[in-house]
Amino acid sequence: MLDSACTSYPSSWRQIPVDPPSILLRAVELSEEELNDPREKNSHANKPLIKHVEECSYLARLITGKYGLDERFSSALCALHDIGKLRPAWFLGSGVGHSREGAAILSSIRRELGEELGFSEGEMDLLIFMVKKHHSSLRADDFKDYRALSWLRERKEDACLYADAFGAFKIADFASANEMIKDIELMLERKWPSMEDLRKIIRGLDEGKWRKQLELVSESNVDLAAPTGWGKTYVGILKALRDMPMKLFYCLPTITAIRKMRERLEGMGEEVGEYFYFADVDLFRELGEGSDEERLIDFYRLFLPKINITTVDQLILTLVRAGKYHMRRLFLRDSVVVLDEYHLLPAPMIGALSKLLEYYRDIYGMRVVLMTATPLETYRKALRGPLNASSFDLTEEYRGLRRHKFSFIGRDEALNKLEELYKEGKRILVILNTVKEAINFYRKVEGEKLLLHSRFTVRDRLEKEERIDSCRILVSTQVAEVSLDVSFDALITEVAPIPAVIQRAGRVNRYGREAVGTNVFLMEPPSSEPYTDIELKYSSNVLSEFHGELESGEGAVLRMLAEYEKLIRERAENEINYWREMFEELLEDHIYSKNIDETEVLRELRGDPSVLVIPLEYESEVRELMSKLKQSSYLERIKIYSRIKSYLVPLSLRNKKFKSYVDSSSDLPFPLVKGLSYSEELGLHEDAA
Where are the bilayer-spanning segments (predicted)? Predict the structure, then answer.
């Protein structure tokens, strides 16, 4: 009940409250506790609780209306989530909790309030559970929570609707607490650019391809295989401009690819959200000190922009209900999702995606565009089947291309060949299979050179990527295989699995028709790392057999891929099926957040046992930043964490010397590396002998 300062409702009250402030006031009156007046008590700085409820309900109503969610349930959450703050013991800065306290108040009036709201017993159980968890993930605390929500176990679609209504409320709650209502409203109301806007940013537009692309995107779900340089990049964007969904999610395999895509899309005048683990480092680097747009990282993290570029990792974590999934998953409703270069994903990740797309296909109305330049039928079948996607195989166009002439050279010839090509004024791309070999080769190179691999801090890597277009010699690893919309004159590469070699060659003479002389030089690697002995031996044999045929057309690419798939098919199918089953089990309860280690899950899916480490050279900087965290505001903490992440470097657990490199006694949040050196030029490396 309200304290003496609050007026009571008329005795005639028996109707379902029609607006959230009324719901809150009625709940306070029903309670036998002595609660403060929500019209007078501040829930946030200079904001009474009733005002916060009004702001929440306004934005939540906008979101639920757009996405066809349960406005009734979302409104009740807006009204009641902070009722625990009305206990006299709670006040701003008190440190007293309010989520569980609010759930306790609602539990004491659940029958009467449920009747007046028109909620079933199950809905009241769900409402109370969500009030209790509204500052955390939707993980069940105990068996009581599981039992209370057991009625949703066989109701997948309803569970998704309730969870997404909770997500709409949480977006609104977050926006009101941080004075972002208007910003998010404007973002949600943005319109799509026109197809003419897209035509303007396509370099050397081919009208024949444009007509073919228009034909492709008329299908609901699309499975597209086409040669490198064909223009697949724009098919997903065109699909969104044609269908005008709520949002576009463009999923790419590398950070380099994400940044390049964002630059293209911004050419249409559209705000583009960019989210991956290091997105905050990239954003704050671009904004600089003193910018008033620092909250953009929250918008991007929550998938609020019309166009979102992200990684497959983020898509999987959202759909499998990791962490606070509810604040992002709802925006995948009525969306177009593009999976570009999906052949680069390991089989376990293909299996996970296959099950997730199957699970959400119908109830979320997602339209999916699958795109690859090196199609493996095992992967295509796993993804295409659950979507019932229309297949467009344009790889026959490889037969009309003569962009590459291959030749094998000895390792001892590679440096001389590079010098020869350099003197001829050519731009050369060199790709080695390991970071160690890339660094060793780079040290021997003279000229205008650039080194790029995975063991740089993200800050240094971003700066290097900006120099790729103008560099004469790029020495790199697998990070240069995909989505670099640049064209070198020649490639020197170690033998790798066939799809990787094709992707590497796709960075050479990218837009040409016929190679005049040899422009792809292959050499045997000193070891099979990071691949298997059998993969490299098989690839070497296939390349030796078919590379001469490329002079009469790149149709040999298709035969090489077919031969490679014979090697990996059985293993890939087994891994795909295993992870489909694993994710089916993870999804079966339909609503709870998963109690999983996100980093470990992604590590298993990728088969990449890397961990983020702090180079010894940056220990003092990280310690200084850590010392500032406790006294910092929310926004300041975001910036501090971003700066800490800017010093991190991935290091593989497969490294035989990993244990000797890592200081296990360090009290820092990430392992400290003492056995390796770091420089902006070379990255994390062993000192030269």
Answer: none
CATH code for the structural domain at 190-390:
3.40.50.300
Domain limits of the chain?
Answer: 20-187, 190-390, 402-552, 609-685
Could you report the per-residue pLDDT of 657-679, keeping only the tens digit for each? 777 788 877 888 898 998 899 99
Q: Cα separation of 253 and 260, whole Å?
A: 12
Cα–Cα distance for residue pair 336/239, rounded to 1 Å: 7
Question: Is the fold of 190-390 the same as that of 402-552?
Answer: yes
Give the closest residue to 273 by CA, choosing from 371, 366, 188, 160: 188
93 Rama sector, left if φ>0, alpha if ψ -120 to 50, beta otherwise: left
Q: Which two tokens stand for residue 8?
A: 């009571």
DSSP code of residue 648: -
In the predicted model, is pLDDT for residue 487 greater than 90? no
Q: Among 568, 687, 548, which Cα is nearest to 616's?
A: 687
What does the alpha-carbon distance between residue 71 and residue 302 come to, in Å, rounded to a whole number? 20
User: DSSP letter string over 138-191?
Assistant: ----SHHHHHHTGGGTT-HHHHHHHHHHHHHHHHHHHHHHTT-HHHHHHHHTPP
Q: Which two tokens stand for residue 457?
A: 């801090």
Could you please report the per-residue DSSP string of 529-547?
TTS-HHHHHHHHHHHHHHG
| Contact assessment for residue 313 and residue 276, using Cβ atoms and an 8 Å cutoff | yes
* Torsion (CA) 356, 360, 364, 365 in degrees, nearest 10: 90
End-to-end CA gap in the chain: 78
Domain 20-187 has CATH 1.10.10: no
Sign of CA dihedral 87, 91, 96, 102: positive
> Tens digit of pLDDT for each residue in 529-546?
888 888 899 889 888 888
SS3 of 651, please? strand
| DSSP character at residue 447 | S
DSSP symbol at 213: H
- CATH number attached to the domain at 402-552: 3.40.50.300
Neighbours of 218 (CB within 10 A): 11
